[in-house]
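Lay summary

Proteins are chains of building blocks that fold into shapes. Our project writes down both the chain and a compact code for its shape. Here are two examples, one after the other.
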Amino acid sequence: MIILSLPSPAQSLLPTSFKTLNPSRQNIIPSSDSLKNPNFEPLKNRLIRQLDVGHLRHAISSLDLMTQQNAPPDLTTYSILLKSCIRFRNFQLGKLVHRKLIQSRLELDSVVLNTLISLYSKCGDTETARSIFEGMGNRRDLVSWSAMVSCFANNSMELQAIWTFLDIARIGVLPERVLLYRRDSGLFEREVLMDWGDNLRVCVENRLFWG
């Protein structure tokens, strides 16, 4: 398994010509209407309390109840629920939440999309993760790229992880320093340090082998 660590932020210079995800959708934000509904906050708070104690199915029932009572969940609610599904490693429920999110016709932001990449990465569905990533277009940020590198690395697709990482440089998302660790069965094996500058220097176990 390869773990990617990005110690410093970078500026994204992604081309604007990339396709956006679901371009036909309108920027529908039901939270304004939801906030007018007195049931919205109590139901949302109930959902959060249920997640705090790990009751994912009860939380999804609260999500459905919000829609039924004309207090549709906002992106924050979906984001919290998705992250809880990842946290408790209940990926099937996470996929269910994703389907409900699609049905809501909310315009997804990069935070939710990055969370979805993480969800499908952790359950081994690299194709769906890649599809979401590619559909983000110019909404991809350093977190998105890091998530995809981790997705490939954690699913035994090391070469694809390396090529995706190199795409970061090609497209213009340039971290000053990137630290890669390779671990097997939780044991530290080797360290790869990549510094971006005039040349790419790759050091393995403190020995320069290519530059």
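And here is the second example, written the same way.
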Amino acid sequence: MAHGCVLCHRNFDSQQALQQHMDSLAHNFDCEKCNENFSSQQALQQHLDSPAHSFIFEGNKSFGTKQALQQHLNSPAHSFIFGGDKSFGTKQASRMDSESPAHIPATSVKYIGVSRSVVSPVYATALKLRFQQPTVDDILRHIDTKLDKLIVSTLIAAALRLLPVDNTPNGIALRTEKSRVTAVKAKDAEDSFCAALSRRGLRYLRESQEQGEASTPDVRFEQPTFICGHLCSWLEYKNYFGFRANPFLASKNKKQFRRYATKIGPGAVVYKLGFETGHLNIDGVMTFREEDVLQDLEMKCMQ
């Protein structure tokens, strides 16, 4: 009997061989630039080296390699003007200046996310134990971590999505009910978050009110609004912990967030439980933890 990987479609002679394959942290190969996923490092490298993989700058110039783009950005003729009187050699330098404390409102937010080195071992443990349907306590008996138990629970839920799909009538019924419960909890959490925004005087449209729009984030502000020191036109709310290796969700979400930034403008993703540092890395998209957003807005109301 062949044991297949649901992500890269490779077959293995035994369940043990499949599990070793799935437990490998090198299993995910994705292109950070265009968000494509690949089943091997070789396939990813072929994609990166292909003529079709060009690096776009300012919407009208393309470069065959990242190195060629960087040479363009660092050339003396390539300067960026900010505020009418300051010139910068690279777009990164211009952005760093524009995001300096002199250009953005003060904010009390100090949370910068959880290091991948903290998240990955716990997720790897959840992957190894997923066939045993582990609880949070089961995970904590195998690994010492300072992660909040709710975050550990999120990592377990992500690992369980990689179990073989049970297509028996009972399996389908259980999966349907689980999806329904998850959707209800997510909506309740989003409604609570939006109610908190309204109590703080923010004016916006919910996704259900954005009829006729091609892109419909959870929150679209009537006017760009400073959130935790960053100007945002939209917010997307996620009722979980955001991390790079989240199967099936991470890649899908990146495409969605990139589309919002392109069509609407800069915005942010608000994670209820926080996020892994640097897991999105998308121009025009910030990541915040819910409690920090609400605390920041509360401070503004008191000023």
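What can we say about the second shape? Residues 126 and 134 are 7 Å apart (CA to CA).
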